[in-house]
């Protein structure tokens, strides 16, 4: 009996799907039967046979506007139509695409939520008619206008792709491209921060990464365009912390010293730091001033960064860079050595600090003696530092060995030691500001 009922239902469904609708086409009974019929086929993933009755429901649902009753027509419709599109060619395929796109238009007409469904339409239009990229661009822009930073991340990613395409075709300006990227990046960053579901947070993060890579690898991401666009904006609102953060991020993404050494970067980075003091922000400013040759300002921000840093590994790096600043930027050998020693206090295995001390001694200790013979003693303590470097940090071994080979060549000669009545292995102290005890070694 059950088998006969099932056969009868399937037969009725096939007749209906073929367009044989016996009752009044606007009748509720017919609507209910057609909904049930296409739903049964849909659940079986028989999209071909679902199409006929689904299409009738879609065409005749205006006076049945009830979310509970008709929502599946619009939810399931795109799946049905994409399968229909896959089986058609030529004009029939184009007609099916028209129907697919019409689903979103009618859904907006009947239920609103334009930002949501216009975004879905933009994605489908781009998929099936990529030549309509200007329409896609306008749809994405409209979605962003309506939904703001809560716009769907897939639509925002598509907006970036299409905007970059238009920029490459010289249809929108570099300024437009920079502004669009900046707005999209901010929106995705906000979504990541607010999202509580980890799987969705990852997806949004992937979209944000893709957007950033698209921009950074484009010709729009040059320092000049960013500086030209944002300098007047910052000058008009120099205390706007959010604007400052945005500019700093853009210029950092430029991966260029030109970006990070600009006045705009320095000014905005300082605004950001003064609002939210952090070791990382102070460190970045210190590095930039170092590269700009503004040593006093660099020293100030390095010291602030160090005072705020709790991680000893990072602190060691900062002390080392401060030592380089004293050495190369200020010619203050004593301070350079002290900074290197501070790095070793933070991390006793920080081999680069010993290398720095050795270089500092070589540069600043040439006159630490009473005569030409004693002036060469400094190279013993220089090499001592390089030996210590590789003993605590194998990663610097190659560099340390090269330096040992170079500076060992400056050791006093055996003939000079003979006349000074000094033997190899003797303990001596290199004086003046170095004040290090070492062992005498000679070359022939």
Tell me what the structure shows.
This protein has 23 helices and two strands. By secondary structure, it is mainly α. A hairpin with a 5-residue loop joins strand 1 and strand 2. The N terminus is likely disordered.
The whole-angstrom Rg is: 36 Å
Helix-strand pattern? HHHHHHHHHHHHHHHHHHHHHHHEE
> What's the β-strand tally?
2
Structural class: mainly alpha
Q: What portion of the residues fall into strands of 2 or more residues? A: under 5%
Q: Alpha-carbon distance between the termini?
A: 112 Å
Task: Provide mean pLDDT, rounded.
Answer: 88
Number of helical regions: 23
User: What share of residues is helical?
Assistant: over 70%
Question: What's the layout of helices and strands?
Answer:
Blueprint: H1 2-17, H2 28-43, H3 47-59, H4 67-86, H5 90-111, H6 114-128, H7 133-147, H8 153-168, H9 174-194, H10 198-216, H11 223-236, H12 241-253, H13 257-260, H14 263-275, H15 279-292, H16 295-308, H17 312-329, H18 333-346, H19 351-364, H20 372-375, H21 378-392, H22 397-408, H23 414-419, E1 427-430, E2 436-439
Helix pairs in contact: 1-3, 2-3, 3-4, 4-5, 5-6, 6-7, 7-8, 8-9, 8-10, 9-10, 9-11, 11-12, 12-14, 14-15, 15-16, 16-17, 17-18, 17-19, 18-19, 19-21, 21-22
Concise structural overview:
Helices cover 74% and strands 2% of the residues.
List keywords for this structure.
444 residues; two-stranded antiparallel sheet; 23 helices
């Amino acid at each position: 009996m059950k088998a006969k009922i099932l056969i009868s239902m399937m037969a009725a469904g096939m007749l209906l799907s073929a367009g044989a609708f016996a009752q009044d086409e606007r009748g509720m009974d017919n609507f209910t039967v057609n909904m049930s019929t296409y739903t049964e086929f849909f659940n079986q993933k028989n999209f071909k046979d679902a199409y006929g009755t689904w299409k009738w429901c879609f065409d005749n649902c205006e006076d049945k506007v009830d979310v509970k009753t008709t929502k599946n027509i619009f939810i399931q419709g795109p799946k049905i139509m994409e399968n229909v599109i896959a089986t058609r060619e030529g004009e029939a395929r184009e007609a099916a695409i028209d129907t697919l796109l019409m689903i979103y238009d009618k859904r907006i007409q009947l239920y609103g939520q334009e930002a949501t469904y216009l975004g879905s339409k933009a994605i489908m239009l781009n998929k099936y008619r990529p030549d309509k990229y200007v329409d896609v661009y306008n749809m994405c822009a409209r979605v962003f206008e309506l939904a703001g930073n809560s716009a769907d991340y897939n639509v925002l990613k598509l907006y970036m792709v299409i905007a970059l395409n238009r920029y490459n075709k010289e249809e929108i300006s570099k300024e437009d491209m920079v502004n669009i990227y900046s707005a999209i990046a901010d929106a995705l960053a906000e979504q990541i921060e607010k999202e509580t579901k980890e799987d969705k947070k990852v997806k949004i993060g992937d979209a944000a990464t893709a957007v950033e890579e698209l921009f950074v690898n484009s010709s729009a991401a040059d320092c000049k365009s960013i500086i030209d666009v944002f300098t007047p904006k910052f000058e008009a609102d120099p205390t706007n912390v959010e604007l400052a953060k945005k500019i700093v991020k853009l210029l950092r993404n430029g991966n260029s010293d030109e970006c990070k050494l600009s006045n705009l970067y320095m000014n905005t980075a300082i605004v950001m730091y003064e609002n939210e003091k952090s070791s990382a922000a102070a460190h970045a400013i210190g590095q930039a001033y170092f590269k700009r040759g503004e040593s006093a300002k660099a020293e100030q921000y390095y010291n602030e960064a160090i005072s705020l840093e709790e991680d000893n590994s990072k602190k060691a790096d900062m002390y080392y860079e401060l030592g380089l600043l004293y050495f190369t930027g200020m010619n203050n050998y004593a301070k350079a050595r002290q900074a290197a020693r501070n790095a070793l206090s933070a991390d006793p295995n920080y081999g680069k600090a010993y290398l720095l001390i050795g270089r500092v001694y070589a540069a600043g200790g040439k006159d630490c003696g009473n005569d030409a013979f004693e002036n060469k003693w400094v190279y013993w303590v220089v090499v001592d530092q390089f030996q210590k470097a590789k003993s605590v940090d194998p990663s610097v071994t190659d560099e340390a060995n090269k330096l040992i080979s170079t500076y060992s060549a400056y050791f006093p000669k055996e003939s000079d030691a003979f006349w000074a009545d000094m033997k190899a292995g003797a303990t001596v102290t290199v004086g003046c500001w170095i004040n290090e005890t070492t062992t005498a070694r000679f070359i022939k």
